[in-house]
Write the structure tokens for this entry.
Amino acid sequence: MISTNFDRDEYQSTRIAKAIEEGQEFVPDGDGEKWYTVVCANGEDWKYIHDRIVENDCDEDNIPTQHRDCVDESKSCSRMGSFLLNDAEAEDLRNHPKVLDIELDPAHYEGTFKGVEDRPRYNFIDKFDSNVSIGRDFTTSFFPTTPGSNLLSRTGASIWRHSYKDDPWDGISDTSILVGNPKVLGDGTDVDVIVCDESAWYGHIEFIKTGVGEPNNFVGGNVLREGFAPSATTGVCGVLDMVLDTPYYLDPDFFEADPANRLTVRWDGTTVPVESVARDWWRNESTTYRSAKYVGTNSGGTAIIGSAEDFGTVSVNTAQTRANSNGSNTAQHTSGGYHGTPCMAQAYGKTHGFAYNSNKWHMSIIWRTGSQNISNMFRILKIFHQLKPNRTSDNTKNPTITSHSWGRSYSFGDGYYFYRTTSSGVSFTTSSKPAFLNNFYGGNKHEKWERQTQSETVLGHEMLDAGVIFLSAAGNNNQKQVLPGHPDYDNYHGSTSTYSFSDAEYYGRMTHRPGFPNSIGYVSNYMGTGQGGYRTFTIGALDSNMNSTSYERKASYSNMGEGIDCYAIGADSLSATDDNSGSRKDRYDAYYRIDSNYNIVTSGGTQSDDSQDREFGGTSSACPVTCGIMATKLQFNRDWTWENMKDWLKYEVEDQSSARFYSSQDEATSATDTRYNTYYSLQGDNRKIIYDAPSGGEPSEEIKISGNGLTITGVNLKIV
């Protein structure tokens, strides 16, 4: 492979500067005379055209009436040459029956044309070794009671739709089951992808290296593999727990100093910390519980006060166990909830995710027994990113990207609204709300915007400062989200007609601002605009169905507006699930077996629990899908920041055509504007559906050179 890191702007500016330095010619401005190359079908036609153009007072149609110089006879080619023509003459000559083509002379105007198209041709690879079935809006044939081998590796639109800019279902029914082989640019190698959600089942076959129905280049295993440390082994499960496994990854010397008491072998063969020892590593700043390098000098260690290593303590939940949060090959997680498993699968599952070769991490947060609170989550993500070991091949740190399909909400009742004004509030009731509040359904829930001084927001800000890339679901209220500077940014509601703007900000009653956690990481000069904005990525949901004219559209419930960075498949997507899900679909590859040496075997050993799929939806689905795609961009652009990723979205992921993505009416502009009632309206947002667009860093097409005794030599040899 010949790889390149291609930055279009940098390349173009460098190319032009070099051309000027070398005295190369550029196409002049205006419609005056320029060098035009004229191409004919044969030498006879060329001579005829040449002789007519150079003669005086030619009266033949589509030939200049005045003599024009032939400035390049191009004797090496008998059917072309260059003339000095003005733009009108060139256009007229183009219509002559003996002229095959006419263009500005690229050989003369090297400054304009030389190297302008010298870009990589990217190597898209087939994900699987054969075609698979792909569904968007599923039919019963996609979910038979006993799936056949034709449904091995079946996947949903989360992969197929986002492999391309254009919709693969364009022009056909969205219920059509397609058969094909998705093509991908990357797989997330050497990127840490962290899904922060409910507890999840690590034993699902989506995360297990079985050798059956997997991507062509699927590696499997996890970062605690053999060679990482003397006691480490290679496990068949790819997912690790951020609380229970990170301590060993960050501090192997401590655990290897007493492996008999500090380490154990997980059900899949991975050597992991003893649960209590891992929790104590976080909770205690003492050389009894961690290496001295992670203990401050004021506590008897060697960590410099204020350094990343001097992170103090994190009061992780002592009830977190692998049984509660992870499960095993034969047992589901016991803390309840199904949400984590499909989110993980759509980020990095081997069938349902883009980042199937990433370093796969998971953290159980908020809702379930033993899960971590939000403050702990932000602290752990920051510590992990700052202290994880560098990649041995080049001594660089792996990028970190995280997916968050959760949000904070609260309920409100009767009150007063303040819309694009600072005057007295307007009364409303929950049974008679203005149009802009109509869509706060589900117990009148609103995603809560948190003030930037709120402690969790500050912790999130510091996590982003450390370099973590943070994606969050937009929310499912069908509500417009805008950025600072928009007329609706300061809209709010309160309990009295004189309710103050400052109180609304403090208590999170802002109706059109991004909710929490989308609102962490505020910066006053966003992307050089001079306006405020957020370093997070807010992901909206794309509908599985199209409208009556076959336009794609956002999901009816998805939040929208300029605050949404992009849309991805949400409604009725396909993903893995666990036994806590109420509706499950059987898989052809439902079971696997592990023997006593932790090998996958076809007979004997211990049979796993039943791996199943489910239809999954919401912006909860769109977020991990997007996270997986972005991880494949970080794979080839390891120094990218959130700004680089925003630039890629803006400039490389082309907006959908208005003829293909339903945007409905223009943006609503008043509190009672009925345009708020249009479920599929984008409310002024761009038509950005994320897809696997090249970033410039991906490998170029493989070049195969063969021949007996072939030798290629050169100093600083460059192949373009």
